[in-house]
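ok so for the tutorial part 2 we go from a plain amino acid sequence to predicted structure tokens. step 1 is just haveing the sequence, like this:
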Amino acid sequence: MEKEKPVVVNEINKNLSNPKRVIQTELVKMLMKGTNMEKTIAGPIKNVKGFKRELLMKYLNFFYEPSKCVLSIAGHVSKPNHIINLIEQYFTNNKRYLCDNNTITNYKRQKYNNLLNITIKNSKYEIKYLKKTLDTSYVTVGFIGYKLNTRNSIILDLISIILCGYMSSRLYKRLRNELSIIYNISNNIENLEDCGYYYMMCGTQNVKLCIEEILKQLNILKEVLVNDKELKRAKEYINGSNQMNKNDSSSLAAHYGYNIMYYDKIITIEELLKQTNSVTSDEIKKLANEIFVPNNLKICYMGSKKHNIKNLLK
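step 2 — the prediction. this is what the tokens look like for a chain of 314 residues:
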């Protein structure tokens, strides 16, 4: 353990020196405020340095056992009985690690099924500035979203493609091609068992104008229906990705594993394709009005200069 601790500490320091990773982490903290998910996965360095073997063994004994394991296999299996025999041989042996106190008590997975409604009702927009001298400033704009494999999560997938999923998407065209104020823009959707979040991130030379234009494009989604051609293109993009996953054993195994772990059933790629293709422009507009609201807005940016962002929210 003592030999591995510096490895983990180095990884944490490496992330802390990466502006993109830092601003991403800070935005997730803002979005997940008041939940266990606002904590970073690696945790603070002092915790890593203070870990004892006893604690690690207790953790392994409690969480890493067959009854808490999902084993997902996808692809061509020529001898299924052989696979089953291997599983029974290696995954029924409940190995226990020796330690003085073998249990973790009073642990219960906390869920946040109503996080979006709670945030919109009781919270307000939040803006955070991180001062750092950089050639390129970084901007993130995020919102609480939806849990995995729901109708709303599928609609939000389409919105993410329309906004910045490909080179001719709305934000890419506006911010790079027309205004020339960004080098790139990306977005990310995290769908969990009980909740989720969505954010956009870009590097820019003009922080204020960049945020202003992002908010304008979100408002357009709230006010104007997406035309049939643009919606069709977004669906084709997602369908193409899903078709590729359908033919990739690794992606299928992950997909099936998540489904069993979260819902105790399989939601097939075909079902997801069917749901995606049935989404309408009215649904996109309705969902945009539900989540792209001031109380659900979190902005985090990093650069050498602080800007007056509040007046953009009026």
